[in-house]
Design brief:
This protein is mostly helical. It is built from eight helices and no strands. α2 runs antiparallel to α7 and α4 runs antiparallel to α5. The longest helix has 32 residues. It starts with a helix and ends with a helix.
């Protein structure tokens, strides 16, 4: 039952990428209230679910790493999360700098690097859809809900950065990435230590990708919508 349910949610993720360009109600400035609600939901998911989960992953990593240079690092999972945030911040700066150069070849190279990173990002989310330990089917549903609205935000941001080339190639690759991650999860089970590393990295990436969309002043984001999305989703998480 859980496998079939996860497949349904994986297809839901794919449909979001496939039809995202048809979501005409989403605007950038002033920022669509839907995007602000989505940002609140994603932030709530990170702080109520993902970050507390890092405690569990920290214990797994501490057991796995008992010798060598990493022995002195007491907070491995949090360091990996910080690296995830830093990596995606670096990608964003690279994209912004490439726009200023007005060099088509450079922009194309940056596009493929950007999409490759989000391909891995999506594949990991697809993998965790089936391999994450959920308390119930509702837990899987709330994972889907948080990352579904997060995907809408990511699609909007990537389309704004890369325009036509994203619709021509990028969204197709990100759609395939989710299915690929899910299929890998069906047939392969990584050791806990690797899942912990990947989950921590993902947490850092989600934090950066959410906050970079909400914080810039020129976006004219709706704090009320962000707050309602955050509080509403937090209450739902605390009830399951």
């Amino acid at each position: 039952m859980e496998t079939w349910l996860s497949l349904i949610f994986a297809i839901g993720f794919m449909l979001i990428h496939f039809f995202s360009k048809s979501m005409k109600f989403i605007k950038d400035t002033p920022r669509s209230r839907f995007l602000s609600i989505a940002g609140g939901i994603a932030v709530s998911y990170v702080f109520i679910h993902l970050l507390p989960d890092l405690n569990k992953h920290q214990e797994i990593l501490s057991e796995a790493v008992k010798s060598g240079i990493f022995e002195t690092l007491e907070n491995h999972a949090y360091i990996i999360a910080l690296l995830g945030l830093t990596a995606f911040y670096g990608l964003e700066r690279m994209v912004k700098n490439s726009k200023k150069q007005q060099d088509e070849e450079t922009n194309l190279g940056v596009f493929w690097i950007h999409i490759a990173s989000f391909f891995l990002y999506n594949a990991l989310i697809g993998y965790l859809l089936i391999r994450e330990e959920y308390k119930s089917n509702w837990g899987m549903f709330f994972y889907f809900l948080a990352l579904a609205v997060h995907f809408v935000t990511n699609d909007h941001s990537l389309r704004k950065d890369h325009k036509e080339i994203y619709d021509r190639y990028g969204r197709w690759l990100l759609t395939v990435a989710i299915l690929l991650g899910w299929v890998v999860g069906v047939y392969t089970q990584l050791e806990e230590v690797y899942v912990s590393l990947l989950t921590a990295f993902l947490a850092g990436g989600i934090i950066l990708n959410v906050l970079k969309e909400e914080l810039p002043e020129e976006r004219k984001s709706s704090f009320i919508s962000f707050f309602l999305g955050m509080v509403g989703y937090s209450l739902l998480l605390l009830l399951i």
